[in-house]
Amino acid sequence: MTHAPIALFCYNRPEHLARTLDALEANPEFARSKVYAFCEGPKDEAEQPQVDAVRALLRRRAGKMDLELVERGENLGLRASIVDGVTRVCREHGRAIVVEDDIVASPVFLNSMNAALNRYEDTPEVMHVSGYFLPVDPAGLPESFFYRPTSCWGWATWRESWQHLDLDAAGLLARLQGEAGERFDLDGAYDFRAHLRLNLEGRMFTWAIFWYASVFLRGGFCLHPRISLTRNIGHDGGGSNCRPTTSFLGEMGGAPVSAFPDVLQEEPLALARAREFYLNNKGRV
Question: Residue 117: pLDDT above 60?
Answer without folding.
Answer: yes
